[in-house]
Amino acid sequence: MLKKKVQQLAKKNSNQLISFRRHLHQHPELSFQEYKTCQFVKEKLESWGIETQIMATTGVIGLIKGKNPNSRTLALRADMDALPIQEINTVAYKSQNDGVMHACGHDVHTTCLLGAAQILQELKEAWEGTIKLIFQPGEEQLPGGASILIKEGVLHNPSPSTILGQHVEPLLEVGKIGVKSGLFMASADEINVTVRGKGGHGARPHQCVDTILMASQLIVQLQQLVSRNADPLMPTVLTFGKIYSEGGATNIIPDEVKILGTLRTFDETWRLEAHRQLIKSAELICQSMNGTCDFKIIKGYPYLKNNEALTAFTRQHMETYLGAENVIDFPSRMGGEDFAFYSQQIPACFYRLGVQNPNGSGLHTPNFDVDERSLEVGAGLMAWLAMQA
Ligand SMILES: [Zn+2]
Ligand SMILES: [Zn+2]
């Protein structure tokens, strides 16, 4: 039985998967600098007889052909970049690159896709079509490796009709998978505001244009975008995470105040309308107080939508592979993810892989680690899902 074969191969290769993951974990590379990771992936794929191509400088594309290779093409995606975080774990496979760490589990994603590729190649007489492997650079940094790969034509020659991707989930135990049909992750835009007025002595505010007060008004009033202008049924988050000025003191009003924030939502039309309203309101607020503001919005990733039909199909095969009790309904997230770019082009399904570690650490923290038994699950499951036409 095919499922048994996949599970046996995943088990047989599990020590090798752990060694791949530890190697990648020890040698993390920042977004768009994944040169050694790219080389590592390319060499492994070629050693198994899989043809490869380099795209977006540090991305690796692999093609595996089963029976009737022209009958359909499915893409599998893994991101490969690490984060600018200093690891504080004391494990033997701790990061050897100072200040750089796989704290978002992209070492696991890369390893699982390698593991899936090895199984798919070994069993290529047992499934139909072509599998396109996308080892993607730069998920953690704008404009996102996915958007570059798409511009370079990753969704053509051959054109995948669907795409699957997975992400580690520290809230789920090993052996469990989190799935959500429809809207799954939010669009995420960066907000960068400079409020300008006229600085001066704190004792003579009438001779100044108070930038601190303008910034305060702006922060409070812009929240009305969420409470009054956003559709109550459409999740929207506006968060300001930093406010600072170069000058200023207990008795000095600074010339300029800067505010940094993020806007997240799930609808493209509303997203653009929200940009327009934020800029207009901010300008009016500052104008009414005799100042000006420079309100920049840096457009980030779009929202991520899991195609309903593909997600239902994928879920059914996850249940066959892992048991229905291990496939969990997972809530939407306001986090961003550049897999969203693929989901805007073709039917996509992005799911969460349980990796819960006893140390309880979360994503993007300096003590993040995973339960490595998740590698066998993540690799085997991805191979199994890819075989289902
Ligand atoms: Zn991340
Ligand atoms: Zn990530």
UniProtKB/TrEMBL annotation:
The Mn(2+) ion enhances activity. InterPro entries: Amidohydrolase, Bact_exopeptidase_dim_dom, Peptidase_M20, Peptidase_M20_dimer. The keyword tRNA-binding does not apply. Its EC number is 3.5.1.47. Keywords: Hydrolase, Manganese, Metal-binding. CDD domains: M20_Acy1. One of its GO terms (biological process) is diaminopimelate biosynthetic process. GO terms for molecular function: metal ion binding; N-acetyldiaminopimelate deacetylase activity. Transmembrane segments: none annotated. Mn(2+) binds at residues 104, 106, 140, 167, 364. Residues 191-280 form the Peptidase M20 dimerisation domain. Gene3D superfamilies: 3.30.70.360, Zn peptidases. It is an enzyme of class 3 (hydrolase). The keyword Manganese applies. It comes from the Bacteria. It holds the Pfam family Peptidase_M20. Its cofactor is Mn(2+). PANTHER family: METALLOPEPTIDASE, PUTATIVE (AFU_ORTHOLOGUE AFUA_6G09600)-RELATED, PEPTIDASE M20 FAMILY MEMBER. This is N-acetyl-L,L-diaminopimelate deacetylase (EC).
